[in-house]
Specification:
heterodimer, A: about 110 residues, 4-stranded antiparallel sheet, B: about 110 residues, 6-stranded mixed sheet, 11 strands
Chain lengths: ~110, ~110
């Protein structure tokens, strides 16, 4: 298994509070991704990173920001959580390109009340 | 309309049955991926293919580029195959991956 961990694995928070999810990899892969998974939808890309301090938006980036200060860590921040951001969040990594095989973390279940 | 459509959404089979899950896509692709998500939530890559057919154990994946269609077959299905199977494409349009909504497979003993 690729060395990818996510923390926390579960979180319940209140509307309006800031939340940060962490993805940590030990594979030294260049590309890192944050997805959200909702019933009836496929995985949807929130943000991705193609190197330290290099990030870009995905298709559902509104309300989210990211940072990557080290190769191994990719943080996803919800500045002011809303109930629509209740979801399961997956981090993924890939080494070669954005469209090559990706390895997924275990997921973080976030509930915004 | 989603760029990647899977059918069926849900599938229940008896142990030992031959299973087929279908995936159709509407964009130009460089590769197609089949992923498996177990009830615990973890997602693993099963196949990445750009033409023809690949086989791994009881799993077979095929792709028809001209028809923009792929199938995932499971032979001699087993309850441990119960999972959500996800089709994804590496899109040439936006240099990104797009995912289907998944097919939930339940194999009963």
């Amino acid at each position: 298994d690729a060395g990818i961990t996510q923390s926390p694995r579960h979180k319940v928070t209140e509307t309006g509070t800031p939340v940060t999810l962490r993805c940590h990899q030990t594979e030294n892969h260049r590309y890192m991704y944050w997805y959200r998974q909702d019933p009836g939808h496929g995985l949807r890309l929130i943000h991705y990173s193609y190197g330290v301090k290099d990030t870009d938006k995905g298709e559902v980036s509104d309300g989210y920001s990211v940072s990557r200060s080290k190769t191994e860590d990719f943080l996803l921040t919800l500045e002011s959580a809303t109930s629509s951001q209740t979801s399961v969040y997956f981090c993924a990594i890939s080494g070669t390109s954005r469209t090559y095989e990706q390895y997924f973390g275990p997921g973080t279940r976030l509930t915004v009340t | 309309k989603n760029e990647v459509e899977q059918s069926p959404q849900n599938l229940t089979a008896q142990e030992g049955e031959f299973i087929t899950i279908n995936c159709s896509y509407s964009v130009g692709i460089s590769a197609l991926h089949w992923l498996q998500q177990h009830p615990g939530g973890g997602i693993v890559s099963l196949f990445m293919l750009s033409s023809g057919k690949k086989k791994h154990g009881r799993l077979i994946a095929t792709i028809n580029i001209q028809e923009k269609h792929s199938s995932l077959h499971i032979t001699a299905s087993h309850p441990r195959d119960s999972a959500v199977y996800i089709c994804a494409v590496s899109s040439l349009n936006n240099n990104d991956m797009r995912f289907g909504a998944g097919t939930r497979l339940t194999v009963k003993p």
